[in-house]
Amino acid sequence: QAPKKAKKKIDGGSNVFSMFEQTQIQEFKEAFTIMDQNRDGFIDKADLRDTFAALGRLNVKNEELEDMVKEAPGPINFTVFLTMFGEKLKGTDPEETILNAFKIFDPEGKGRIKADYIKEMLMTQADRFSQEEINQMFAAFPPDVSGNLDYKNLCYVITHGEEKD
User: Fold this and answer.
1) Do the first three CATH levels of 17-87 and 93-158 match, i.e. the same topology?
2) How would you write 129-151 as a 3-class SS string?
3) What is the per-residue pLDDT across 132-152, written as a single tens digit (0 to 9) for each?
4) Environment class of 95 (CB within 10 Å of its CB; exposed 0-12, middle 13-18, buried 19+)
5) Architecture of domain 17-87 in CATH?
6) Cβ–Cβ under 8 Å, residues 98 and 159
7) Domain 93-158 annotated CATH 3.90.1140.10
8) Residue limits of the EF-hand domain (predicted)?
9) Beta-sheet strands, E only, within the chain
10) What is the pTM of this model?
11) What is the domain partition of the chain in residue ranges?
């Protein structure tokens, strides 16, 4: 039997890190790092406000930010962040999980995102896409005549493998 790496126990004896694959943890870490705007290891209201601003959403209500921060049992460090995602993702299917990720860029819930906007986000944030990867995505999922990406259809195809009629 191969020796197991020691893992830090989190109160209650359950280990949130065992809920996710290593690659997922890395992606959550990148998201956390992007959101932790002041790089202090915690996400607070100011970080959330700055993150929304970076995504082009200004004038977020204080109450909205407070509600988000209140979802956590205490200060939001990476472990708490991961635990919160684990709880939110428990029982969700992959399509719903992907849809929820896109909804961040679609606060009005229209089901479409400006193709130019999603291209810019994919090429400038976290695991940056190359121009070639963007071209491949838009070849598979061309924006409509208004320049919008139908992400609901995209999520369906990613998880079910074919387009809805």
Assistant:
1) yes
2) CCHHHHHHHHHHCCCCCCCEEEH
3) 988 888 888 888 899 898 888
4) middle
5) Orthogonal Bundle (1.10)
6) yes
7) no
8) 23-58, 93-128
9) 112-114, 148-150
10) 0.51
11) 17-87, 93-158
